[in-house]
Amino acid sequence: MGLLNIISSIKDRAEKFLNEKNVVTDILGKMEEKTGIKKKVIALGAVSLTGLYLVYGYGASLLCNLIGFVYPAYYSVKAIESPCKEDDTKWLTYWVVYGVFSLGEFFSDIFLYWFPFYYAFKCLFLLWCMAPMSWNGSQIIYNKVVRPVFLRHEATVDNMVSDLGGKAMSAAENLTREVLTTLVKNKAMIIPSPPVAQSEAKSLPSTSGETSTAKVGPSEMNEERRPFLG
Predict the structure, then answer these.
(1) Cα 211 to Cα 91, 160, 193, 199, 214, distances in angstroms
(2) For residues 42 and 36, what is the distance between their CA atoms, to the nearest angstrom?
(3) Positions of the region Disordered (predicted)?
């Protein structure tokens, strides 16, 4: 009976989505006008092709991540803009579980990559986590796994974050102080050059005297000695 309720809930949610005004329904409406095939049939065929592509297609990882991100992101924005806070909690819970799952997948992807139909199962898991029911995958995983672990280690994590924040601030202050001190020292080491123009001006008279003496020729010296010879 529980499985029938899940299928019925998913069906109602899909029909509600197809009756809404959005980009997907606009595209499906245009396709329905051109082909004459109902939107429900086109959507079912698209879902079937997506499932086959996840099993056999190239780039299934990207498609699976888009499925797990685009739809929840769209409804998260709608939840933020709505006055009701219940849907905010729902999608925040999904993103927490999605983050934990992505972290675990990062360290185990090298092994899970070779698992047959891995991305198809991953896509089903993400769809279960975002399923439109109160006990979907994100609610169960959060209440059974994430929340108990978080409450058990909350104080330790808060102290660790506080210590890291204080150490980061101290390191930033010390680095800023050292940079400023280095700049001040470098500025003080710059020695001003001596005034070149004044030294050249002082040396001009002696230079002119030497040049005038040097210009006296032998004929002038002989003229000065003639009176003594006569």
Answers:
(1) 97, 84, 30, 19, 5
(2) 10
(3) 195-230
Rounded Cα gap, residues 13 and 109, in angstroms: 32
Parts of the chain with a pLDDT under 70: 1-7, 10, 22-23, 57, 113, 189-230
Could you give the count of Cα atoms lying within 13 Å of 6 in the half-sphere of its Cβ?
11
Tokens of 161: 């974050």
Question: Is residue 9 within 8 Å of 133, Cβ to Cβ?
Answer: yes
- CB-based burial of residue 96 (10 Å sphere; 0-12 exposed, 13-18 middle, 19+ buried)? middle
What are 107-149's pLDDT values in tens digits? Answer: 877 777 677 778 888 888 998 898 877 778 899 999 999 999 9
pTM of the model: 0.57
Per residue, what are the HEC states of the chain? CHHHHHHHHHHHHHHHHHHCCCHHHHHHHHHHHHHCCCHHHHHHHHHHHHHHHHHHCCCHHHHHHHHHHHHHHHHHHHHHHCCCCHHHHHHHHHHHHHHHHHHHHHHHHHHHCCCCCHHHHHHHHHHHHCCCCCCCHHHHHHHHHHHHHHHHHHHHHHHHHHHHHHHHHHHHHHHHHHHHHHHHHHHHCCCCCCCHHHHHHHHHHHHHHHHHHHCCCHHHHHHHHHHHHC
- Measured from the Cβ of residue 94, the count of other Cβ atoms closer than 10 Å reads 24
